[in-house]
Design a protein that fits this description.
Strand content: 5-15%
CATH superfamily of one domain: SGNH hydrolase
Shape: elongated
Oligomer: single chain
Structural class: alpha/beta
Number of strands: 8
Largest sheet: 5 strands, parallel
Length: about 375
């Protein structure tokens, strides 16, 4: 009896010690998390000053609320109900700006006296990532060259599937005379990153899906599921480091095997199918369509095969193609990295696209340009 009383009298001390040490442990982890968060903010503060070879991005909701994604760059990409994401409207920075629709715009193009309208879709190359200002983009330089309105509806990271969706759900309402898809690289490269072929031609879905899974865990009906997701919510920086450490490998959180890439032919076929659909949309909505395949600095054999396979699939369907990868005028000095071009590279792209539009008479129905109009 005495022993049991002694144990009962000692129990409160153990409880107090447990609470104290638990509190100390929680506090230490909290201080570590705050230190890592401060380091993270400092790191992204420095990265945000960098704009070459590309602008760092930041995922937000359609109305600008933070999605909690790792990247915290100055270019905000907002969730889009159909295209997964698009540019957040009304952004202004030292190197880029977007209008009320999220389109990249140059003030120099507003004074153009024209009734012809061209819509440009694509990824970061078409958007003009890494450029000093909006005037250097291929869209702005093409507008000046042809004296037409060029709406830069490109979104960094977009693949052809997103461009097709964006075009069908929103951009056709702008009643363009010509739609240009300046792309290729994102569709080619995405095949190396996805195990599910349904994700070919798309970007951003897997990252956003991961954030949704983390959020759902906190509202799950199972208490164990909520507790499992709690560390990631309370200590996201520490959790991320643990997941990618040896502990993460041992626990199976990080896959040991390398991702098996999708076949080149499958990726090219999916890309070609989307280009053909954009071409068919032109028939339905009365605009001309031009597919422009972007170049790369290394003239890589696989990317050349990808472009060649795409051309072989779309040409019989009547799609007009301008393969910039076959143009020797693009010099290595024009590239900021593998595929992003500087201002002179964008000027060359604009010149070659303008010549193609002229030679194919794509704006003939708009009655705005003749052979002498390309400057």
């Amino acid at each position: 009896m005495a022993d049991s009383r002694r144990h009962l009298s000692v129990l409160p001390y153990f409880i107090v010690l447990f609470v104290i040490f638990s509190g100390l442990g929680f506090s230490l982890v909290g201080f570590l998390e705050l230190a890592l968060e401060r380091e993270h903010a400092k790191q992204w503060g420095e990265l945000s000053k960098q704009f070459k070879p590309f602008y760092w991005w930041h995922f937000v909701t359609h109305d600008g609320r933070d999605l909690g994604y790792e990247h915290k760059g100055p270019l905000k990409l907002a969730l889009h109900p159909f295209a997964i994401y698009s540019n957040l409207p009304n952004q202004h920075s030292d190197h880029f700006s977007t209008d009320a629709h999220g389109f990249r715009v140059s003030e120099a193009d507003r004074s153009l006296d024209t009734h012809a309208r061209v819509v440009l879709v694509g990824g970061s190359t078409a958007f003009g990532t890494g450029l000093e200002n909006d005037r250097e983009t291929v869209a702005s330089q093409l507008a000046q060259s042809l004296n037409v309105e060029v709406i830069n509806a490109a979104v960094i990271g977009h693949g052809s599937g997103q461009e097709l969706t964006y075009l069908l759900t929103e951009l056709v309402d702008l009643h363009p005379d010509v739609v240009i898809a300046l792309d290729g690289w994102n569709d080619f490269y995405k095949r190396l990153e996805v195990s599910d072929p349904r994700l070919l031609g798309m970007n951003g879905f897997d990252q956003i899906e991961e954030q949704l899974v983390a959020s759902v865990q906190l509202s799950d009906s199972s208490l164990l599921t909520r507790l499992y997701g709690l560390p990631r919510t309370l200590f996201p920086r520490i959790t991320a480091r643990v997941r990618h450490s040896r502990i993460g490998f041992w626990m199976g959180w990080v896959s040991r095997g390398e991702l098996r890439p999708q076949s080149l032919d499958l990726a090219a076929t999916r890309y070609a199918e989307n280009l053909i659909k954009m071409h068919k949309l032109g028939r339905a909505f009365d605009f001309q369509f031009l597919a422009v395949l972007q170049p790369d600095v290394n003239r890589g054999a696989e990317y050349q095969q990808f472009r060649a396979r795409t051309e072989s699939l779309v040409t019989p369907e009547g799609v007009r193609v301008l393969n910039l990868g076959d143009c020797p005028e693009f010099l290595p000095a024009m590239f900021l990295d593998t595929m992003h071009l500087d201002g002179s590279g964008h000027n060359l792209m604009a010149t070659l696209i303008a010549r193609k539009i002229q030679s194919e008479h794509l704006l003939a129905s708009a009655g705005t340009i003749g052979p002498e109009a390309v400057r």
